[in-house]
């Protein structure tokens, strides 16, 4: 199984995984941003399961919509082509009638127009990671055309840091933490902000 499929394959539920007794509700869409390997896809998926709210991964959504892999969109249309699709999809998901947890791709912040969509539509959670830790988490970089090597990743992350900080409504450092621990931390933030609430009876 390739890395991409391994990352996206449904995992067997561990016996100890906590489930919310009742489904919860989101008052606004929540966007996860951060560099490749920060855990945006994994954390949003985990939180969606434990709180029983809807989630969508932008890269998966784009792949289904376009009928091809992200890396093939980059190969055929370049980064510019991918960014144009990404903005259309972000706008669509931000305007969805029922708010969702949305895990964005790591480069969503490089398109200035997307900052306005974040501001208008929802709440942005920035998951921090260093290039070194991200590299240690991503065993196969072939599915991420912009994660070529560690040196390039360090330079790219440095360029993007001010952009992540500019859009963030909340920031969570992921260093040395497990996905469930990060998801719990994000849950606490969203509950405190009144974005994640018990469903009205
Ligand atoms: N906190 C973490 N600790 C260890 N591994 C992680 C963590 N978060 C994500 N991973 C792993 O890193 C890889 C990339 O995670 P993913 O959720 O796809 O990140 P992103 O969507 O931010 O690029 C996956 O194999 C995932 O299991
Ligand atoms: O950082 C980037 O520019 C990208 C990140 C990827 O998503 P993840 O951050 O989920 O890996 C994916 O959208 C594409 O390969 C471009
Ligand atoms: Mg992802």
Present the secondary structure layout.
Elements: H1 3-8, E1 24-26, E2 30-33, H2 40-51, E3 55-57, H3 58-66, H4 70-94, E4 101-103, H5 112-121, E5 123-128, H6 131-137, H7 150-167, E6 170-173, H8 179-192, E7 196-198
Parallel strand pairs: 2-4, 2-5, 3-4, 5-6
Antiparallel strand pairs: 1-7
Helix pairs in contact: 2-8, 3-4, 4-5
Bound molecules: adenosine-5'-diphosphate, shikimate-3-phosphate and magnesium ion (MG).
Residues 7, 34, 36-42, 103, 106, 137-138, 174, 177-179, 182 line the site of adenosine-5'-diphosphate.
Main attributes of the structure:
single chain; 201 residues; alpha/beta; Rossmann fold; two-stranded antiparallel ribbon; 8 helices; disordered N terminus; binds adenosine-5'-diphosphate; binds shikimate-3-phosphate; binds magnesium ion; amino-acid biosynthesis; Shikimate/glucono_kinase; cytoplasm; transferase
Describe the structure.
With about 200 residues, this protein is of the alpha/beta class. It has a single domain (about 25-190), classed as P-loop containing nucleotide triphosphate hydrolases (Rossmann fold, 3-Layer(aba) Sandwich), CATH 3.40.50.300. The chain is about 50% helix and about 15% strand. The strands form two sheets. Strands 3-4-2-5-6 form a five-stranded parallel beta sheet, sandwiched between helices. The longest helix is centred in the middle third of the chain and has 25 residues, at about 70-95. The protein starts with a helix and ends with a strand. Residues about 1-5 have low confidence and may be disordered. The structure holds adenosine-5'-diphosphate (ADP), shikimate-3-phosphate and magnesium ion. The site of shikimate-3-phosphate has 11 residues, from helix 2.
């Amino acid at each position: 199984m390739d890395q991409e499929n391994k990352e996206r394959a449904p995992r067997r539920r561990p016996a100890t995984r906590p489930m919310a007794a009742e489904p919860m509700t989101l008052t606004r869409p929540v966007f996860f941003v951060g560099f490749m390997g920060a855990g945006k896809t994994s954390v949003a998926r985990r939180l969606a399961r434990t709180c029983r709210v809807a989630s969508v991964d932008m890269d998966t959504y784009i792949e289904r919509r376009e009928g091809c892999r992200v890396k093939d969109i980059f190969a055929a249309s370049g980064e510019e082509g991918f960014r144009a699709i990404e903005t259309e999809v972000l706008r669509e998901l931000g305007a969805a009638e029922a708010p969702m947890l949305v895990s964005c791709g790591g480069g969503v912040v490089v398109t200035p127009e997307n900052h306005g969509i974040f501001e208008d539509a929802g709440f942005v959670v920035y998951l921090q990671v260093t290039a070194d830790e991200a590299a240690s988490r991503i065993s196969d970089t072939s599915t991420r055309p912009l994660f070529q090597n560690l040196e390039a990743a360090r330079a790219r992350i440095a360029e993007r840091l001010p952009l992540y900080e500019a859009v963030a409504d909340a920031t969570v450092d992921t260093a040395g933490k497990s996905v469930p621990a990060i998801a719990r931390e994000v849950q606490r933030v969203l509950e405190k902000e009144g974005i994640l609430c018990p469903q009205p009876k």
